[in-house]
């Protein structure tokens, strides 16, 4: 097949295989110069395998066949030698990875890493010129003090700054094609928005082709003009972004859209999932129609908050809570630095309430959680949880507190013991001193909890590695609820999950909170999730609460500039489709 003269990349009939199975089936993509294409799908759909095949970086034991033609290079890239591919990588085709800390060399300064990309391909006269150009590139990606940033090692930079260094490296040689693999997944919402705006600005300026891989549909609506939807290694739908997102033809695309749209709920007020998406109405590009959906969502959320907060006594009361850490001394002559993690915060949560805690990294959210769970002591102030004062509490008193308050962590794989069976994991909270259940009773309670979180009873004999991420998070929720606590604290419990699994877990949490009459404290940097799930919210910045109140009121009429900035930076599918018109 002959390609049009302005074709940048032509992939035809690409298959990626291991010895036992095919990971990518018959993938085809034709991209014009300067075009921006989104490749979307859930974990395991084949997105990352496709991009590593384009770069010739497939792992051992994985092979690719088909045809990849790239502008300016003769023949099929799949048949090119490693030497030829090394000339292309970083010069004509560059990649921005998901986790910059693992992609950057920890032993090299940031400026030297950007300069090395240029010297490797011989595109600068000498090292001094490369260093000068590296500082220019760090300036182009809007690092505050580029000369200072050039001298820093990766660990001395924040996550957003490291991602900017990666972007500077990727664009240093002005490549024709930029591949981005989930480049903002681990970033705070305002930093994510800045990095996305920056990528878009730079590729438009330079006329660079962009292939953007993500499971976040709002990001694709913001960044890309065309979209390809992948499921089980196959492209199931492709076309212009606004067309695919407002008139999806394939049931899987419709399911992804439904699960991504946290502003849409079914007749029972629950989030849509891929399975329940049949009745989902995709976002229109008619502002009046979407405003009606928005008003309905607001009324639904406001109704829920009024009912739950009515005349309920506080189950949690935090008063003037202060936590100050002292860092280790770095000099004989200077005093150790103090870190003010919490600066006198106060709030109450009524019984049965759902409180959202939002704020960026370093705002004090995790410190607050540790104190509420009795894992850390405040410097001063009071935290009373279900009648237990945390400040100055002895271990026996904290044991009582931990029966009443349980935590669901962000990363289930990190919080589940890989050597314990699911039954051992879930029943562990029942083994504390003072509880009297016999082994048979514990097994029965585990089976009931597995059923409550939507897992088969046969799961009890299996191990964590045998489950998907969403299933592992269900196991974490079952463990948290087995001793019937009064309060559940969820720390970013859905941030690592695919959109369809996220919708299922959020529905499950909401159902269980209602069923067991739980009080929920939900910590997240995803404002859309908090808006859906919580009836009240506190916004934290630098150890202080800068705004608090009823969720819908705070979202619709934010009083503090920081809250306004968080809301403005938050991407929603409907908003992005409206603004892209």
TrEMBL record:
InterPro entries: AAA+_ATPase, ABC_transp_ATP-bind, ABC_transporter-like_ATP-bd, ABC_transporter-like_CS, Oligopep_ABC_C, P-loop_NTPase
Keywords from the named record: ATP-binding, Nucleotide-binding, Transport
Gene Ontology MF terms in the entry: ATP binding; ATP hydrolysis activity
Residue intervals of the ABC transporter domain: 9-257, 316-567
Domain of life: Bacteria
UniProt name for this protein: ABC transporter ATPase
Biological processes, Gene Ontology terms: peptide transport; transmembrane transport
Family according to the record: Belongs to the ABC transporter superfamily.
Spans through the membrane: none
SUPFAM superfamilies: P-loop containing nucleoside triphosphate hydrolases
């Amino acid at each position: 097949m002959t390609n049009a003269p302005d074709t940048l990349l032509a992939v035809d009939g690409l298959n990626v295989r291991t010895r036992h199975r095919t990971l990518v089936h018959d993938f085809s993509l034709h991209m014009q110069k300067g075009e921006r294409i989104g490749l979307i799908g859930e974990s395991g759909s084949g997105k990352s395998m496709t991009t590593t095949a384009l770069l010739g970086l497939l792992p051992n034991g994985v092979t690719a066949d088909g045809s990849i033609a790239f502008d300016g290079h003769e023949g099929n890239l799949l048949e090119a030698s490693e030497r030829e591919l090394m000339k292309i990588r970083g010069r004509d085709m560059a990649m921005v990875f998901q986790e910059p800390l693992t992609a950057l060399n920890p032993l090299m300064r940031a400026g030297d890493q950007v300069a090395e990309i240029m010297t490797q391909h011989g595109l600068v006269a000498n090292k001094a010129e490369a260093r000068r150009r590296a500082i220019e590139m760090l300036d182009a990606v809007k690092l505050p003090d580029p000369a200072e940033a050039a001298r820093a090692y990766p660990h001395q930079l924040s996550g957003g700054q490291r991602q900017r260094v990666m972007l500077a490296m990727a664009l240093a040689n002005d490549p024709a094609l930029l591949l981005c693999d989930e480049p903002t997944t681990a970033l705070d919402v305002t930093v994510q928005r800045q990095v996305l705006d920056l990528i878009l600005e730079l590729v438009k300026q330079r006329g660079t082709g962009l292939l953007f891989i993500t499971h976040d549909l709002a990001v694709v609506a913001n960044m890309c003009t065309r979209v390809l939807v992948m499921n089980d290694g196959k492209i199931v739908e492709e076309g212009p972004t606004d067309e695919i997102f407002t008139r999806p033809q394939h049931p899987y695309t419709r399911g992804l859209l439904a699960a991504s749209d946290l502003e849409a709920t079914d007749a029972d007020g629950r989030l849509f999932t891929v399975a329940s998406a049949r009745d989902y109405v995709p976002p229109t590009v008619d502002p009046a129609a979407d405003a009606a959906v928005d008003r309905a969502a607001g009324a639904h959320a406001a109704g829920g908050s009024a009912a739950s907060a009515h005349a309920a006594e506080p189950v949690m009361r935090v008063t003037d809570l202060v936590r100050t850490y002292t860092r280790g001394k770095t000099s004989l002559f200077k005093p150790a630095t103090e870190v003010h993690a919490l600066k006198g915060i106060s709030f109450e949560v009524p019984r049965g309430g759902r409180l959202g805690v939002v704020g960026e990294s370093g705002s004090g959210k995790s410190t607050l959680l540790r104190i509420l769970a009795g894992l850390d002591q405040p410097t001063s102030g009071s935290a009373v949880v279900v009648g237990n004062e945390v400040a100055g509490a002895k271990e026996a008193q904290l044991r009582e507190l931990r029966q009443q308050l349980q935590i669901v962590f962000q990363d289930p794989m990190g919080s589940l013991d890989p050597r314990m069976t699911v039954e051992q994991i879930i029943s562990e909270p029942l083994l504390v001193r003072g509880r009297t259940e016999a082994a048979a009773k514990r097994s029965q309670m585990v089976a009931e909890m597995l059923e409550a979180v939507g897992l088969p009873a046969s799961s009890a004999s299996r191990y964590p590695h045998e489950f998907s991420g969403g299933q592992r998070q269900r196991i974490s929720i079952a463990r948290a609820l087995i001793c019937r606590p009064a309060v559940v604290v969820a720390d970013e419990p859905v941030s690592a999950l695919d959109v369809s699994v996220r919708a299922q877990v959020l529905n499950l949490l909401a159902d269980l909170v209602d069923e067991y009459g739980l009080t929920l404290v939900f910590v997240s940097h995803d404002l859309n999730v908090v808006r859906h799930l919580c009836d009240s919210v506190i916004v934290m910045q630098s150890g202080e609460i800068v705004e608090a109140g009823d969720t819908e009121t705070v979202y619709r009429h934010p009083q503090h500039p920081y809250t306004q900035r968080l809301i403005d930076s938050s991407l929603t599918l409907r908003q992005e489709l409206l603004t892209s018109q």
